[in-house]
Amino acid sequence: MAKKQFKSESKRLLDLMIHSIYTHKEIFLRELISNASDAIDKLYYRALTDDSLSFDRENYYIRIDVDKEARTLTITDTGIGMSKEELESNLGTIAKSGSLDFKKEHKIEEDADIIGQFGVGFYSAFMVADTVTVTSKQLGSNEAYQWQSSGADGYTIEPCGKDSVGTQIVLKLKENTEEESYDEFLEEYRLRSIVKKYSDYIRYPIKMLVTKSRPKPKKDENDKDEKVEYESYQEDEILNSMIPIWRKNKSELTQEDYNNFYKEKFYDYEDPLLTIHTSADGVTSYKALLYIPAHAPFDYYTKEYEKGLQLYANGVMIMDKCADLLPDCFGFVKGLVDSADLSLNISREILQHDRQLKVIANHLQKKIKSELSNLLKNDREKYEKFYQAFSRPLKFGIYNEFGRDKDLLKDLLMFCSSKEKKMVTLSEYVSRMPEDQKYIYYASGESVDKVEKLPQTERIMDKGYEILYFIEDVDEFAIQMLREFEGKEFKSVSASDLGLDNEEEKKEEEKKETENKELFAFMKDVLEGKVKDVKASTRLKTHPVCLSSEGMLSIEMEKVLNSMPTDNKVKAERILEINVNHPIFDKLTDMLKTDKDKLKKYTEVLYDGALLIEGLSVDDPVAFSNNICDLIG
Ligand code: ADP
């Protein structure tokens, strides 16, 4: 019989399959099972509108049969079947396939990943088989046809005998090579695990004849000592569980069901902190089961971590980690999305896929946010546990993309505060601000212990104002992006103007500045290149000196930026502030008149001390030590 040629597009895809170096060849089974399931679906929908057809679930199934000697793997379904024309057009032409269009568009020649991510349908059989034989009988037809192909040289179609409606696909597996073994696709355990992995939730039973063992009947019923002997026998087994947990009603499920599923599926030893089971109907309908882990995955803060949700199209897993479904700020969320709308589109038509996914991603983002807000409201302890594990991605979420998501995330933020050393949300902070307090104050440093002791906090504390402690490197960056919360601006305790003073106090300060102009000018000269200015402090009460900074870049931010491996080092504009009410100040004014050399040393030591308070190292530790010895000696 004359061979027919594949259409050129199909031939390209076929070639790609035959010579595939793709490592997950196992997905061919997912593709064939998924086609089989679709074919049964079609019969099911037909039966819904045609009274002469009855759809008795019992009679609809998918079978896998293995013949080790013949090296064949057979997939049989009781679906709607294909006519001769359909065999021709469906299996002879694959140009419809969206994955191929995608490849063309992106000029990807041999990107094996496409195979894994989007599926390539029927042709994937050629990754493992050198001859594929499809026998099919269509619903309502008396004839059956056989399509056969050994690859790129074409295919044949001829009439054949087949009793029941449906399709049977026989794969003659490739011979093993040095690099690849195809034998594994004849092994019961392997097939079982592939089905479990990709097709567990296919709605129809996937049956396979499996070998089991059972105890033989005893020879003598009454002989207690008789050894039990076992015999093996073969039995059909259903390999898939058929009903996915996310498709069940919430009322049917316990938290334990959810937890077990989570731990098994996402390899966690600990129960999740929060489970979100949600669905949407409408233009885009989907079901989603999301989990917030109780702790950050071990690789979460490494480059290796891949965010994403599993994506199912009508019960068939089509992508293991669909990154587009989760924004980075919620990258720690585990789970899956199953959408019926995607089944015909997503793996094939990439554009539609994009739009649908965006809608779902949007919904999910809002849902995660609202669930976290509820947790914060209703179970503070649990929320704080969550926050301890995942505050960083939230803060980065505020900072990234020029603050695009800041409104989504700002209510979820918490900081340790000077009041009771407890975590507070920004809205709690603002709600208990005294009336005369203009700003939300914060202090940055390495740890709560260190920040608490910062001299810069003195007057603010004295006024009875609360201070937020920023101890993570990202904190100040996130807050600068946020700028304000409920109309209140953020202000660092080290900012040049704290906004504390009334008119009278301001006048007093100006007076001190002018009175001590000469002293400050001298000190500034000594610290040439190190500080922008030396000033009378408005924030100190009992401490002698501190540093403050002018402009956007704080000293803490300088530290963070400079700890990164780049050559672009930055420097905050430092101001050395002197407490004019401290006894040391009188000494300084005296020295200006009597001993300028000594004043120089004092100035250097005071500046070095201020650096140490900030957690910075002194520029010249030897000079620092010698200065101190000179002064105390
Ligand atoms: P896709 O599933 O993306 O359309 P495939 O190459 O997997 O691409 O299949 C092409 C077409 O062949 C399907 O759309 C379907 O109409 C038909 N087909 C494949 N397998 C079967 C089957 N087991 N029963 C009935 N029709 C099938």
Describe this structure in words.
- By secondary structure, the chain is α+β, with helices and mostly antiparallel strands.
- It has 20 helices and 22 strands.
- It has an eight-stranded mixed β-sheet, with helices on one face. A six-stranded mixed β-sheet has the order 15-14-17-16-19-18, sandwiched between helices. It has a five-stranded mixed β-sheet with strand order 9-10-13-11-12, sandwiched between helices.
- Strand 9 (274-280) and strand 10 (286-292) form a beta hairpin.
- Residues 95-114 and 343-349 have low confidence and may be disordered.
- The structure holds adenosine-5'-diphosphate (ADP).
- Adenosine-5'-diphosphate (ADP) binds at residues 31, 35-36, 39, 77, 79-80, 82, 90, 94, 97, 121-123, 167, 348.
- Adenosine-5'-diphosphate binds at residues 31, 35-36, 39, 77, 79-80, 82, 90, 94, 97, 121-123, 167, 348.
